[in-house]
């Protein structure tokens, strides 16, 4: 059921790095994304997939992890993603990309959950540095999102947002990652 996939598709930030992500899985996830709706059917998104350890080690420092966890600099060696999908906007096709990359990214993350992988959409990126690493034309391609993928090493628990934590995610003393969500009654402002 879709609801089950949504509940399983959490932002994973610690992975079993040695497991890796097969190239076939990365291709399948991009294939799902390419089939999603696109504004004016322009299909301006392009993708770079990587499961290559050396390239992944170069991509990793261009990404910021878990802004609310002030005392954590991101996954340690051994906990890092086994694969990445970089979502690009091709400016030769369109100047703006609307919400296409959000739809594509959510599809990739839901597909990853269905296939037994964890994922994390990352928007805090050193874009210029990553463009150079990937040897992309800066005038042509815009890095929109990076999706980190791998076998999850985390226990993630959803909970109702509270006065104590607000909406900021946190880790408890056992290392479980807690994600507060607003109540349904707090997000529906009118019913007719």
Our Rg estimate from Cα atoms comes to: 17 Å
> Which spans have pLDDT < 50 for at least 5 consecutive residues?
none
So what's the overall shape?
globular
Q: Given this structure, which CATH class of the largest domain is correct?
A: Alpha Beta
How many domains? The number is 2
Determine the structural class based on helices, strands and strand pairing. alpha+beta
- Number of E strands: 7
CATH topology grouping of the largest domain: NADH Oxidase
CATH-defined architecture of the largest domain = 3-Layer(aba) Sandwich
- Biggest sheet: strands side by side, in what order? 1-2-4-3
How would you characterize the largest beta sheet? 4 strands, antiparallel
Average pLDDT reading: 94
CATH superfamily heading of the largest domain = NADH Oxidase
Beta content comes to 15-25%
Annotation field: number of helices: 6
Q: Estimate the helix proportion, in percent.
A: 25-40%
Q: Can you tell me about this structure?
A:
By secondary structure, the protein is of the alpha+beta class. The chain folds into two domains: 2-154, NADH Oxidase (3-Layer(aba) Sandwich); 155-192, putative fmn-dependent nitroreductase like fold, CATH 2.20.180. The protein is built from six helices and seven strands, in the order ααβαβαβαββββα. It has helices spanning 2-8, 23-34, 53-59, 100-114, 127-133, 184-187, and strands spanning 45-50, 83-90, 118-122, 141-150, 156-160, 170-171, 177-181. The strands form two sheets. A four-stranded antiparallel β-sheet has the order 1-2-4-3, with helices on both faces. Strands 5-7-6 form a three-stranded mixed β-sheet, with no helix packed on it. A hairpin with a 5-residue loop joins strand 6 and strand 7.
């Amino acid at each position: 059921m879709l609801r089950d996939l949504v509940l399983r598709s959490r932002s994973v930030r610690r992975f079993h790095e040695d497991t890796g992500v097969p190239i076939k899985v990365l291709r399948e996830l991009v294939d799902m994304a390419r089939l999603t709706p696109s504004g004016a059917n322009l299909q301006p998104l392009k993708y770079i997939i990587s499961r290559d350890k050396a390239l992944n080690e170069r991509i990793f420092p261009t990404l910021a992890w878990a802004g609310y966890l002030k005392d954590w600099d991101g996954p340690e060696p051994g906990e890092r993603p086994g694969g990445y999908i970089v979502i690009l906007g091709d400016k030769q096709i369109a100047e703006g990309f609307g919400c296409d990359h959000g739809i594509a990214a959510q599809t990739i993350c839901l597909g990853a959950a269905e296939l037994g992988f964890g994922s994390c959409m990352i928007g805090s990126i050193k874009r210029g540095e990553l463009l150079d690493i990937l040897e992309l034309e800066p005038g042509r391609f815009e890095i929109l999102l990076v999706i980190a993928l791998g076998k999850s090493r985390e226990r993630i628990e959803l909970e109702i947002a509270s006065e104590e934590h607000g909406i900021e995610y946190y880790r408890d003393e056992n290392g479980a990652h807690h994600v507060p969500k607003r109540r349904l009654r707090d997000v529906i402002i009118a019913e007719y």
